Amino acid sequence: MEKMRPGYWNRLKVEWYRRGLEYSDFSKKVLSVILPRTKGLKTFLDVGCGCGTLAIPLAKKTKNITALDPSPRMIDALREDAKRLGLKNIKTINAAWGETKPRPHDVIICANVPELLKGSVEFLNDADRLAKKFVFLVSGADPSADKFYYRELFPLIFKKPFEERSDYLKTYTNLHSIGIFANVEIIEYDFDQPLNDMAEAILFWKEYMGIVTEEHDKALEDFLKKKLVRTKSGLLAKFRKKSAVMWWGKQ
Length: 251
Description:
The protein is of the alpha/beta class. The protein has helices at residues 11-21, 26-34, 55-59, 72-85, 114-117, 122-130, 150-158, 168-177, 198-209, 217-227, and strands at 43-47, 64-69, 90-94, 105-111, 131-140, 183-190, 193-195, 229-231, 234-237, 240-249. The protein has one domain: Rossmann fold (3-Layer(aba) Sandwich), CATH 3.40.50. The strands form 2 sheets. Strands 3-2-1-4-5-10-6 form a 7-stranded mixed sheet, with helices on both faces. Strands 7-9-8 form a 3-stranded antiparallel sheet.
């Protein structure tokens, strides 16, 4: 099971992620599945909301959003953006699932939280119990999918292959085991990463790959020069991804 280590979302990663959202249509694609099925519903719980990837655009379309996340930096970023946009219908909770007891909501959403979606069935049972009308889960589709060019970089830097990761089928199998036969819609979306210059690009990859020394800087720079697209404002790493939106309704 993929698991984020404590402190994973530091200041740098949160800022990079927020900037990446400006170049992504992930939210639009996910909401194209959620919104047509939830017209008229008033309360949404976004579990593992991050900096508001879905909570912010949902708040523009619906009445009441509860946004739950264990990362203080992510919650702070969400609050800042909600205030800047004048959104007053988002209640934030800075806690991990299990540390708080949220009330039932019309709709439960959980997107890209592997420790909940691919672990035990406890969270899946809880989400089904708390949802009055619908549950929507989002997880990556395609275990062989690349991440930040790791399939080329791991052999280059670490002299080992980048291992395949479990995808939505792990979650779907767990749902099946507890008698939930979810609908599945596969979405494709862009999630490009803007960077100011090559120095920031090298820092980005070192941070995500856990490199703390400078011994690989030259190899990273040579590699990234061939991959990154130059723009008017700096550099752009282009990524195309697939995810599965799994959902079911309650009687």
